[in-house]
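User: Continuing from earlier, I have the next pair ready.

Assistant: Great, send them over.

User: Here they are, in order.

Assistant: Folding the first of the pair now:
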Amino acid sequence: MRSVRARAALGATVVVAVALIGAGLAVLLVLRANLTDQAGLQAEVVAREVAGQLALDVPVDRLDLPDEEEHPVQVTDEDGRLVAVSKDLKAITGTGTDRVTPHTSVAPTSTRTDDDSDDDGGDRHGGENRGDDDATGNIPARGEVSTDDPDFTNGTATVDGDTADYRFASVSATTGAGVTMTVHAGAPLATEQKAVGSVRGAMLIGLPVMLLIVAAVTWLTTRRALRPVEGIRAEMAAITASEDLSRRVPEPGSRDEIARLARTTNETLTALEASVDRQRRFVADASHELRSPIASLRTQLEVGAAHPDLLDVPGAVTDTVRLQALAADLLLLARLDAGERPGNTRLDMGALVHEEVSQRTGDRIPVTVSVPPPEPLEVTGSRSQLARIVGNLLDNAERHAESSVAVSVRTERGSVVVAVSDDGAGVPEPERERIFERFVRLDDARSRDEGGAGLGLAIARDVARRHEGTLTVTRSPEGGARFELRLPARPDPGR
């Protein structure tokens, strides 16, 4: 079952079915218990009425018994022998005895005397011992009916050939002569069975209908809720087929999870479109930048092959070096775009700047270095990449400076700041962010050999960001450009 709508409808139907079945069973059990208790109460009332007659010394053959079909009655003596029974009672179960014919050896009237009672166990029913027996609460006193809760049982009775289920109550009574008898009276359970059967039938009919309604409503509701998802899926499929990243998925007007999914999808498409466009421009610009040194080198080699005496070896070497540097820049940018993380080496930026400046022996303008007295100037990152930033900033300053280039290193509010300043023309404020874009050169009249490919500052800012730092440009006190590299300072564990 791969459909979300089908799974949702099935799950809701199963949950509702379990809930309804549990509730239905509870209702049936409670209803059955209540109706059974009512039948038991009716049986108890009938049993106590007959027991009251016995307590008033009404002879057993003259007992006023109720309608035997509604309330069958049995009366048994102390020995469990049947002494009275309802008329037309043909069979019975669930009481003290299943006999329906009184014993002929039992006297039909309560004519026993106190002396007879003493002979048959007076110690148990009369005389001085009555109080001890009454203390048990099981045998009522003479002329009284038991006040204890009756014993309830379920059974059947056959009256006039009709067999039905009954709830029986057993109540004891003691005659004035001291004879204790037990009355078993029943109340029919037909009402209970009919009510329970009606409720059960209604549930069996209503449950499937209810489940069908729940399944249908869940299906329709889920279908309506997932309709925007289908629109998003269809649009994404169309974008994949057409490769047109400028298209966007429809955003529903609701504020639910689906609307947030659509907005997030469009944001992802926007970022992907920008990334693809940036990659395309990068490839186009790289191809353009590579074409010039490759064409120049090829021309020189072809001329050298045809006229060896005209081969410009220094020019070929220069083009090769330029081509090598450009390839290295492109490779570094590709690694940065791929998400390469910097190293975790602990570096001293002051020492790094001194080392980079000392290696620049062929610069047009000497570089002045200003590093404060020994203090923690340590950062964490890749030595080669951070050295690349310093080198690119120095190359840019040398290219635009008139007479001076200065480098300083300091700490400021938890950061190590490397500043490179020159006294050149500076960077116009509207162009201060644009110069960090790839292949951007503000002075288009400058030759490629003199101006570079426009990748140095872009690489420097990308590397700075990978090190959780920033690279910005402002106006220097000398009137030129001032580039500031800020990197998080590494805490000194000795402090």
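And the other member of the pair:
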Amino acid sequence: MSGLKGRGVLSAIITCWFVSTGGAGDSALKRYQLTGYAQGTTYAVTYYASEQVVSKASIDSVLSVIDSSMSLYKPYSLINKVNDAEGTLPITDEHFYRVLRRSFEIYRHSDGLFDITVAPLVQLWGFGVETQDHLPDSAAVNEVMDCVGMEKVKLRGRRLIKKQPCVKLDMNGIAQGYSVDVLADHLETHGITCYLVELGGELRVRGPKPDGTPFRVGIERPVQPEGEGTVIDHVVEIQEGAITTAGSYRKFLQDGDRRVSHHINPKTGYPFATGIISATVYSKDAMTADGYDNVIMAMSVADAITFVNRFKGMEVFIIYKNEHGSVRDTMSFGFSQLIAKDN
């Protein structure tokens, strides 16, 4: 796995797919679709315009610039330079600064459940850039925890202050959503007002389509808690906004009979085991949804619904394993309003 996001190809734990519907639309607008590979996964950009004003090359260029900023898999990236540095660092890169600032906001709002200093833990548990041949013991976890915690870094204007040299950042839990937003903004700067941007299962849309219908997105769910087999569970209709997903049943390590999730608790150093299989979040922008879908994975189902209900403009669909081991789902009231009536 390579690219910017550790979740990469696995970020579509609930696979979001574009459902095309027919209809006589604005004959002056044509449908263009650009597809490719970036950040360890695939992307698909669909937009409507009178002519092709955005090319695949421009999409690839935008994503390459973001990789140079935040990809742990690119030795020359800014984040790797920051991780290797000490003390106070000037942050002149706009992409890095925006994601860093939002990360601090989500860290505070989530009471520390979202924490971009988890890089040493992600690596220790075998989900980082370097492969691991065994799971860590408690001594190794305790040692790494001395370098984890966003209280060990400060953002003062455009300066990042590392209080401890061993602190290393991992923005994979939010940067792919940010990338989707950047691509959406790229389309809009070219006058495109009807589009769907999808990167590794994270997506953002603006509609309606020229025929007046909303974009339709299918949500996939596992048939079994272990993820053996999937079915399309719901179809949602979206006029404008973003949907992202975090999940555990396709990205894990097997230790005998135990499955180890790639979602690591920054407070304890150990993988979360909350019973939530996946969380799909709707929000106005993809960076917000992407950051908070990780937070929801760290909560109980009831707490997650309560948490989301506190935020205006955010909704959630949760698939979880109940006390009997069966796969069930629940959602916030607002998310239920997104479900297609013919679903």
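Worth noting for the second one:
The CA atoms of residues 296 and 323 lie 19 Å apart. The first strand starts at residue 16 and ends at 19.
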